[in-house]
């Protein structure tokens, strides 16, 4: 059993260890045993389970599926079934499929120079069989890394049977080979995935007549290329991803093909806030510090959008929405940092307002909401801010903040207002230390962190109708005044 693999390994081109056997005879002498892909993945998965590896270690990078999707996927793999991952956009279907590579052996022997990754014990292509017959135990053996045993194809309407299965290569025919010679075939993606994993994304987008070409692959485990008398037994695991919307709107998976998949696994968005926070924190490339309390705001905002009756529930709201929202909010903080010369760059609740405008196009609204998209999203954002504020400050005495402005005073903040100015306009406030702790800033926050906490308190009090708020135009950008 090899160590678990991260999806980034698919981008690597590692060099095989020097001590691996290099001829068929040496391979036999080493005691190597031929295993099919399904058997190989089953045994490696069982070994990982028996070694006590967690679901997160068995499927690295997959968050929120430990008790739901992962068990179903594992049952399908232990049964040796091809599977369909069915779910709305942005649910991590492709990420999950890519982690399956980690269940393959790190290195596997192939006939050196074979285009179909033929195993030296059981070559399937004409070229590899000829080499094996010619060289016997001196047959040269190469080693293939598991990252090269993963093939992924995005189903598009222009995908052809030749792309997937293969076609006659006119160049080889022009070189003098007979049309009946199997050597004239240029193999497609499916046979080139022999002894590996073949993933087809958005399967319903594949034209129905092209889906028919996969029937033999899933059942009889062979391919047919035009009129060639060719039977090519394939050893591969087939994984497809699909969106339920596609079954009715853009296309469908034909019934005979659905019948040939052994398992259909339904994916979902993270079931709880903590899981989605962990997912966004993992995936987002943040240009500035985004406090956990604001990340929770953005996650709850995303979940509110996902559940809103104003949003088309069939298309869903991708986890990429929350990731992009986090990155946009951090970018707004970085912009302020550069313009006012403030370090470190720390996001504030006001920075989340830009998310409504920039990410509106990522949401599909119901037809009756035309023209109200911005208002709907802004309302949901404010609701998320108020919800997080209530949860985090429950039981705290915030009278110190309201007393500052009780006699007509104001606290000024805004996109380009430095943290020092925010804190200066507020002054010393009883209870600020408790707020900083509740928001996760600790005992010794920086000035930008303290300003971030203060602005969230002021906005929360405003949303709970305990403070007034006015936005005024000013040189350098709008300013927000919180008052009595």
Walk me through the structure.
The strands form 4 sheets. This protein has a 5-stranded parallel sheet with strand order 4-7-8-1-9. It has helices at residues 24-29, 37-50, 55-58, 69-79, 93-99, 126-135, 161-164, 170-174, 189-192, 208-211, 215-219, 255-260, 273-283, 292-307, 319-340, 353-358, 373-393, 399-404, 419-426, 432-438, 447-463, and strands at residues 83-86, 107-111, 141-145, 150-154, 166-168, 185-187, 196-201, 236-242, 263-266, 410-413, 468-472, 479-483. It is built from 21 helices and 12 strands. The protein is elongated. Helices cover 40% and strands 12% of the residues. Strand 11 and strand 12 (479-483) form a beta hairpin. The chain has 484 residues and is an alpha/beta fold.
Concise overview:
Helices cover 40% and strands 12% of the residues. The protein is built from 21 helices and 12 strands. Strand 11 and strand 12 (479-483) form a beta hairpin.
Approximate shape: elongated
**Tally of DSSP helical segments:** 21
Strand order, biggest sheet?
A: 4-7-8-1-9
Which percent bin holds the helix content? 40-55%
End-to-end CA span:
66 Å
Major β-sheet annotation:
5 strands, parallel
* Estimated share of beta-strand residues: 5-15%
Derived from helix and strand composition plus strand pairing, the structural class reads alpha/beta
Q: Averaging pLDDT over every residue, what do you get?
A: 89
As a whole number of angstroms, the C-alpha radius of gyration is 29 Å
Strand segment tally: 12
Low-pLDDT residue spans: none
């Amino acid at each position: 059993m090899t160590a678990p693999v991260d999806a980034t390994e698919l981008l690597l081109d590692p060099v095989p260890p020097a001590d691996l056997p290099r001829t068929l005879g040496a391979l036999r002498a080493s005691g190597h045993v031929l295993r099919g892909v399904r058997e190989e993945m089953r045994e490696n998965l069982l070994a990982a389970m028996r070694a006590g590896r967690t679901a997160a270690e068995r499927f690295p990078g997959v968050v929120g599926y430990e008790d739901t999707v992962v068990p179903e996927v594992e049952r399908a793999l232990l049964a040796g079934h091809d599977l369909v991952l069915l779910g709305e956009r942005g649910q991590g279907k492709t990420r999950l499929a890519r982690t399956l590579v980690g269940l393959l052996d790190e290195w596997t022997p192939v006939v050196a120079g074979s285009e179909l990754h033929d195993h030296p014990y059981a070559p399937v292509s004409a070229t590899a069989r000829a080499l094996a017959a010619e060289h016997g135990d001196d047959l040269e053996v190469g080693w293939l890394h598991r990252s090269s045993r993963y093939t992924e194809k995005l189903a598009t309407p222009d995908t052809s049977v030749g792309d997937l299965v293969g076609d006659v290569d006119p160049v080889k025919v022009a070189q003098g080979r007979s049309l009946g010679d199997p050597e004239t075939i240029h193999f497609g993606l499916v046979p080139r995935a022999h002894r590996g994993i073949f993933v087809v994304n958005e399967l319903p987008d594949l034209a129905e007549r092209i889906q028919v070409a996969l029937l033999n692959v899933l059942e009889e485990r062979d391919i047919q290329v035009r009129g060639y008398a060719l039977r090519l037994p394939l050893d591969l695991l087939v994984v497809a991803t699909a969106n339920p919307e596609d079954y009715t709107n853009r296309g469908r998976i034909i019934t005979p093909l659905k019948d040939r998949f052994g398992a259909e696994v339904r994916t979902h968005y993270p079931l709880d806030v903590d899981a989605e926070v962990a997912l966004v924190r993992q995936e987002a490339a943040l240009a500035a510090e985004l406090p956990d309390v604001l990340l929770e705001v953005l996650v709850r905002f995303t979940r509110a959008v996902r559940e809103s009756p104003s949003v088309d529930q069939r298309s869903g709201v991708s986890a990429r929405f929350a990731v992009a929202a986090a990155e946009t909010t951090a970018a707004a903080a970085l912009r302020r940092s550069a313009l006012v010369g403030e370090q470190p760059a720390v996001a504030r609740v006001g920075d989340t307002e830009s998310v409504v405008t920039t990410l509106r196009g990522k949401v599909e609204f119901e037809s009756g909401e035309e023209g109200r998209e911005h208002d709907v999203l802004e309302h949901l954002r404010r609701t998320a801010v108020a919800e997080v504020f209530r949860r985090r400050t429950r039981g705290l005495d915030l009278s110190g903040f309201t007393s500052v402005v009780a006699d007509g005073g104001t606290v000024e903040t805004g996109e380009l207002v430095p943290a020092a100015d925010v804190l200066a306009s507020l002054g010393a406030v009883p209870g600020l230390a408790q707020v900083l702790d509740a928001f996760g800033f600790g005992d010794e926050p920086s000035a930008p962190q303290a300003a971030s906490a203060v602005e969230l308190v002021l906005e929360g009090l405003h949303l709970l109708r305990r403070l007034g708020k006015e936005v005024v135009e000013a040189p350098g950008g709008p300013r927000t005044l919180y008052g009595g």
